[in-house]
Specification:
85% helix; 87 residues; single chain; mainly alpha
Length: 87
């Protein structure tokens, strides 16, 4: 089985930052406050990428729903016009 590999450049950068924090804390090269700042910034990147993914995955469904609504409005308008012409 193939191992999972991160493809998104922003996530790769965040993962690298996390790994650097881990190794930096283990070696004593990075202070706690600096490590927290790096982790917080990286978490922001991860959340942003996740939000963008959710939006991209939802777009086809939203577009289809919008098309149905427009179709429904067109049919409703046509029915109203026909009803108005017969009265």
């Amino acid at each position: 089985m193939k191992t999972f590999e991160i493809q998104t450049p922003a996530l790769k950068d965040a993962m690298d930052a996390f790994r650097n924090v881990i190794s930096g804390r283990q070696s004593g090269a990075i202070e706690k406050d600096e490590a927290r700042d790096i982790v917080a910034a990286s978490n922001g990147v991860v959340k942003t990428v996740g939000q963008e993914l959710r939006v991209r995955l939802a777009m086809p469904k939203l577009t289809a729903m919008e098309s149905k609504m427009i179709e429904g409005q067109a049919v409703d308008n046509t029915q109203k016009a026909i009803a108005g012409a017969t009265t």
